[in-house]
Amino acid sequence: MANDALLIFARNPVYGKVKTRLAATIGHDKALLIYQALLRHTAMVTKSVHSDRIVYYADFITDSDVWGDTPLKALQLGVNLGERMSNAFKETFKNGAKKAVIIGTDCYDLTPAIITDAFTALNKYDVVIGPALDGGYYLLGMQTYRPQLFDNIKWSTDAVLKETLSHCAGLGLSHFLLPVLSDIDVEKDLISANILNTP
């Protein structure tokens, strides 16, 4: 494994199981199309990042999808998001990575430059975080496996970033914040991201 590892957490694009909060107002058909567009966008963005790429699937691994054959592929393991991310970081560092960054597939504003900046920041800081407008984060990076960053976090709430920063402070870890971006979770997010007509 290269020194830098990019972990991509992706849901399998199954009708009725993706973007459920979005589907509540625009329907499952449109929500699935939006998520497929987000997957294509994330695949395109990450392809030009100089690092190992590992796609972590939520439910099952598939060969024929937007990721192609280039990235490594694995399955998310754990009972909640924090445990699944923690396990992915643990496995990645165990396999020899010196720096690891994790992203999801919900951020349409994410660019290769932002991901590259995250890896660069890890040359100086213990942790790098990409804050999301909803109080969570769209990116988390570290230079050493820190399982404590996933303990006692209220996942899928607006407290995620605040609690993560509190953990960093409590552990004495230096951190770097990337630009604040928006995840696509509800209908109003589509307007700000300008992807209403993308699919």
Please provide a brief summary of the model.
It contains 6 helices and 7 strands, in the order E-H-H-E-E-H-E-H-E-E-H-E-H. The protein is of the alpha/beta class and 199 residues long.
Describe this structure in words.
The protein is α/β, with parallel strands linked by helices and about 200 residues long. The chain contains 6 helices and 7 strands. Strands 3-2-1-4-6-5-7 form a 7-stranded mixed β-sheet, with helices on both faces. Strand 5 and strand 6 form a beta hairpin. The chain is globular, with a radius of gyration of 16 Å. About 40% of the residues are buried.
How would you describe this structure in keywords?
199 residues, alpha/beta, 7-stranded mixed sheet, 6 helices, 7 strands, 35% helix, 18% strand
Write the layout of secondary structure elements.
Elements: E1 4-10, H1 20-26, H2 28-47, E2 52-57, E3 72-75, H3 81-94, E4 99-103, H4 112-121, E5 127-131, E6 137-142, H5 160-171, E7 175-177, H6 187-193
Parallel strand pairs: 1-2, 1-4, 2-3, 5-7
Antiparallel strand pairs: 4-6, 5-6
Shape category: globular
For the record, give the distance between the C-alpha atoms at the N and C termini, rounded to a whole number: 35 Å
Radius of gyration, in Å, reads 16 Å
Helix/strand/pairing category: alpha/beta
Overall residue-averaged pLDDT value:
91
- Order of helical and strand elements: EHHEEHEHEEHEH
